[in-house]
Design brief:
8-stranded mixed β-sheet, 24 helices, 22 strands, EC 2.7.3.9, phosphoenolpyruvate-protein phosphotransferase activity
């Protein structure tokens, strides 16, 4: 039976048209189960009914015409219950509905299973037989398995707009869900970018002249270097130098002797330059793609992108940057940094990628440029997107293909509203952060390459989180003490007289170093953050010395340890810090005080150790992103479960409130530096809890200050108390939106929220 199942699934997947796939399914299933009828009904959500789309056993004239309501008949019952229904005599069931046109009078036995994709019922698969008997467990298991396999096929068909009735030729709106990669909204036509040359298209060959072939390879490398430099220059007016360092990563890959040397070795063994490049590239791509670490896996995309650029120039093609006349949304199988950079900034409104995650260089650049992005839309019909009207919602991770007039109108209104509000936000950016009744607050920024903070336009009271791993990531080896010292001085000097909190090296989990891979089954629960650096004091001490030297010069540093699980780790880290401090004082011949020391609260275990923490550090900062992830056991970069990641989950809100209460009790300074603080709604709740220091991406400073200035402390606390008494994130969100609207903050509520 397993062999039969595989054959059916393979045949369905190989069918080019949905109608053919469904007809193949019902015919083959009927034969495999030796029954008299097999049919498939698909859900039409807008019409509120199921439509018979394929059958082998019922009247063919009813296909596309026979419909049954979501709450009617046995088909509706299967959809309601979302589970199989197995009946010996369907006609005797109270929910049976007689539909003359389908001609099923002689069929008594009925087995129906729902077709469900990501929690939504897409249709119902049924088998029927004249004999009044229940179908066996084996038959039921096979039908359930087929339904589960069919769900993916139907989801993809829905994305292509093929789930409407056969007589409909209009292009209907399709809503696809991905991962929100960068916030914002874009309304434009889709521009589908396809790679000019694929590694898989290369036919293996040999060369006739070694010197000529080596020269061809070296020229291709040179042309690729020049092309990347042109991309970097094109973005140079829009981005800071530290963000443009992404292209330095590309240049470093080109400089890598192991890769270039391997290509030349294959060439010397008589392989053509194209063949040599493809062999080496595929080897490296395979190694990176197999790694568990999310950030490191994304480097396979960088290598493929570069290899295809090299291949392009090997084939002696001239690459001119396209000049687009109309604004567009860039759509691709996998958007790369070079694709994004090749489109003029004033024409690029958003990016959509079938593959990729928030760790990709394209996502990092999108956030830095303030371009909305949605990633990981596996069901996106790429071939049918070109020139199609789209709406990209980078807040919710949704993509609307051929949006309806009503949806277009709503998003057009939203864009106008956001444009008007942005003027108000900018006015508030430079004002002191405070509630309507004068409660003063401190707003800081999260700084670093991988966050939405590169366009710092002022208005912050300092840096609440500087991610020191970024200088490590853009190198091909561990950076020297002098390099780190200069890097830290640069950021400290940008905020003279203001506190700058630097987090010590935090790699592992969703971040990795290309020259120091960490291979683990579950990296988020493994060797990351302080755990790793304590095991490598030679790395940790160099960073401590560089930080302390920068503090000695600038006097505005605060040091923070990430991923602390217990007090023993904290004591060990402090011991190493004191060692570095003593060494520097001896070398400088001068005494200077240690900077304030703190830890990040992101491991749930620390919620129960704050009393002991208060005796060890000067402050704590809540990393709400990881804390939420660990509390809810959800990888927010995984599109399958991203909907479960919700910082308004009652468990998260109660944990954050508990931290604030304990810190006040133990007289411990506390702040928060996760994404929740960047959301005006989240900021209001945090202020009500007692968080007076909020660190966020720079783009949201004006928005958050504007929202806080509209509400009093008592109104904030009113919203918080209601939220803490509710039992689900959805009900909390709905109640908070009602309150926001009553307090004059309704403009911040977006469609679909």
């Amino acid at each position: 039976m397993l062999h039969t199942l595989r054959q059916i699934v393979q045949g369905v997947n190989q069918s080019e048209a949905l109608d053919d796939a469904l007809q193949f399914l019902v015919t083959q299933t009927k034969q495999a189960l030796e029954t008299q009828c097999c049919s498939v009904y698909l859900a039409n959500v807008e019409a509120g009914h199921f439509t018979l789309m394929a059958t082998d056993g019922l009247a063919q004239s009813s296909v596309g015409n026979a419909v049954i309501g979501f709450h009617e008949g046995l088909i509706g019952l299967v959809g309601e219950r979302e589970e199989p229904i197995n009946l010996a005599n369907a006609h005797q069931h109270p929910r049976f509905k007689f539909i003359p046109q389908v001609e099923e009078e002689q069929l008594n036995a009925f087995l129906g299973t729902p077709i469900i994709h990501q929690g939504r019922v897409l249709g119902v698969l049924t088998i029927q037989q004249a004999d009044a008997r229940q179908f066996s467990e084996q038959e039921e298991s096979l039908l359930v398995t087929l339904s589960a396999q069919l769900a993916g096929v139907l989801a993809a068909a829905k994305a292509r707009g093929q789930l409407t009735a056969a007589s409909s030729h209009q292009r209907s709106m399709v809503v696809l869900q991905g991962v929100a990669g960068s916030p914002g909204i874009a309304v434009a036509q889709a521009w589908v970018e396809r790679v000019a040359v694929e590694l898989e298209d290369v036919v293996e060959g040999q060369h006739q002249d070694l010197d000529a072939e080596l020269e061809r390879w070296q020229n291709a490398v040179l042309q690729t270097r020049e092309y990347i430099e042109r991309l970097s220059l094109r973005l140079g007016e829009s981005l800071d130098r530290d963000v443009l360092a992404i292209f330095d990563v590309y240049q470093n890959i080109l400089n890598d002797n192991s890769i270039s040397g391997a290509v030349e070795q294959h060439i010397r063994a008589n392989a053509s330059a194209e063949t040599a490049l493809v062999r080496v590239a595929k080897d490296y791509i395979g190694q990176f793609a197999a790694m568990k670490d999310a950030y490191l896996r994304e480097r396979a995309t960088d290598i493929r992108d570069l290899a295809q650029r090299l291949l392009y120039f090997l084939q002696q093609r001239a690459h001119e940057l396209t000049e687009h006349e109309q604004p567009l949304v860039l759509v691709a199988e996998e958007v790369t940094a070079s694709m994004l950079a090749s489109i003029p900034r004033d024409k690029l409104l958003g990016i959509v990628s079938v593959r990729g995650s928030s760790n990709s260089h394209a996502a990092i650049l999108a956030r830095a440029l303030g371009i909305p992005a949605v990633l990981g839309i596996a069901d996106l019909p790429l071939k049918k997107c070109a020139g199609r009207d789209v709406i990209l919602d980078g807040y919710s991770g949704r993509l609307y293909l051929s949006p309806s007039a009503a949806v277009k109108e709503e998003y057009a209104r939203l864009l106008r509203q956001e444009s008007e509000l942005q003027i108000e936000f900018e006015k508030n950016r430079e004002l002191p952060a405070a509630t309507a009744d004068g409660r003063r607050l401190s707003v800081m920024i999260n700084a670093g390459l991988a966050a939405d903070t590169e366009h710092y336009g002022g208005g912050a009271d300092g840096v609440g989180l500087f991610r020191t791993e970024i200088p490590f990531m853009i190198q091909d080896k561990f950076p020297s003490e002098e390099f780190q010292f200069q890097t830290y001085c640069n950021i400290l000097n940008r905020f003279p007289g203001q506190p700058v909190t630097m987090r010590t090296l935090d790699v592992g989990g969703d971040k990795a170093l290309p020259y120091f891979p960490i291979r683990e089954e579950n990296p988020f629960l493994g060797w990351r953050g302080l755990r790793m650096t304590l095991d490598h004091p030679e790395i940790f001490l160099v960073q401590m010395r560089a930080m302390l030297k920068a503090h000695h010069k600038c006097r505005n540093l605060r040091i923070m340890f990430p991923m602390v699980t217990n007090i023993a780790e904290l004591e060990q880290a402090k011991k190493l810090l004191r060692k570095a401090h003593a060494e520097l004082q001896d070398e400088l011949g001068e005494h200077f005080a240690l900077p304030p020391l703190g830890i990040m609260i992101e491991v749930p275990a620390m919620l129960y150790q704050l009393r002991a923490v208060a005796d060890q550090v000067d402050f704590v900062s809540v990393g709400s992103n990881d804390l939420t992830q660990y509390l809810l056991a959800v990888d927010r970069n995984n599109a399958r479960v991203a909907n479960l990641y919700d910082e308004l989950n009652p468990a998260v809100l109660n944990a954050l409130n508990s931290i604030a209460q304990q810190c006040r009790q133990y007289q411990l300074n506390f702040s928060i530096c996760g994404e929740l603080a960047s959301d005006p709604l989240g900021a209001i709740l945090l202020v009500a809890m007692g968080y007076k220091v909020l660190s966020m991406n720079a783009a949201n400073i004006g928005r958050v200050k504007w929202a806080l200035a509209k509400v009093s402390m008592s109104q904030c606390q009113h919203m918080l108390q209601k939220a803490l008494n509710l039992s689900s994130a959805d009900t909390i969100r709905r109640q908070l939106y009602v309150d926001m609207d009553s307090f004059g903050l309704g403009a911040l509520i977006r469609p679909g929220q």
